Amino acid sequence: MLTKAGISGSDEYHFNGTMDTIDRIKAPVLKEMKDFEGKFLASMKSSVPLLDKITHYIVRRKGKQLRPLFVFLTAQASGGITESTHRAAALIELLHTATLVHDDVVDDSNLRRGFFSVNALWKNKIAVLVGDYLLSRGLLLSVENKEHQLLGIVSNAVREMSEGELLQIEKARRLDIAEPVYFEIIRQKTASLIASCCACGAASNGANEETIEKMRLFGELTGIAFQIKDDLFDFGSDGDIGKPTGIDIKEKKMTLPLIYALNNASAKDKRKIIALVKNHNEEPERVAEVIAFVLKSGGIEYARDKMLWYRNQAFEKLNSFPVSEARKALEELVIYTTERKK
Fold it and tell me: Is residue 14 domain-resident?
């Protein structure tokens, strides 16, 4: 099973993340994104009626399709969109969807984006087999079209995602994640997939290795900033996110605000907070105590500063490409990933 002429660099942006924003970002590649929907569904086609029923269910409940959007925009910004770009986007989505289906089994989750997960409707055995099928379709799409470079890029991302997940599980047992380890985990778990989207986008139009690597780094930096933003959601204090959720604390995940707070706490407070996360993470009052501790420590401000640093590094990589509508859309997509409200 798989487990899961632009911006100046200023930290000040005014942003209201809505579907209108996503539609505006998609504008330079709107036709390609619409064409992609049909091609992606065709890539999952099976002669087994149950499989077709499940894959149609998955496609109908697709999210914002940010990963294919990264593929098409980076291809456009680095040389142009080709038929290979469509295969790259489909490959990314097939493997990513496979990881999501398997993740829901691993996490025993019954919901995905507010809808019933595959395992909730068809049970774990079928969900695992569906994930395996999607993985095989991605591999075959690459091999049949001799897209070996794209397959290598995406396969490396899947490997890193699995390693990052296992590293996090290993560290969560002792709650001893140092900041460098945290960044390695999120680089592998989250950023590697976005990095592969951007590398595939450039590779799909025949870009040279230097350009591919530059786009890969752009995606990696964006992905790290994206994950730190997710960390901030748990504490409900980054802008107007809303009420804190404490979900990461309940799952014993060591996020950047908490790591910073523990690193700057007295030995006594550190032992107390670790004990709360380890032994009382299901008790709302105790979780609220941990959240209050992080808020008081300055952990939120520290994490937000780190997020903005990675975002600005991503802009630096992007600004080395010629000015274009696609590059401008990528700039706005980076802002969207770090200023979104959910």
Answer: no
Which H or E run contains 231? Answer: helix 209-233
Helix (H, G, I), strand (E, B) or coil at 147: coil
**211 part of a folded domain:** yes
In a domain? residue 2: no
Q: What is the reported pTM?
A: 0.88
For residue 3, give Cα distances in angstroms to 95, 98, 210: 11, 9, 30
Residue numbers of the domain that contains 25 = 19-339
Pairwise CA distance, residues 77 & 75, whole Å = 5
Least confident of 77-91, 159-173, 283-297: 159-173
DSSP states of 89-140: HHHHHHHHHHHHHHHHHHTT--EETTEE-HHHHHHHHHHHHHHHHHHHHHHH
What is the number of domains present in the chain?
A: 1
Q: In angstroms, what is the C-alpha Rg of the chain?
A: 20
Tens digit of pLDDT for each residue in 24-64?
999 999 999 999 988 888 888 888 999 999 988 888 777 77
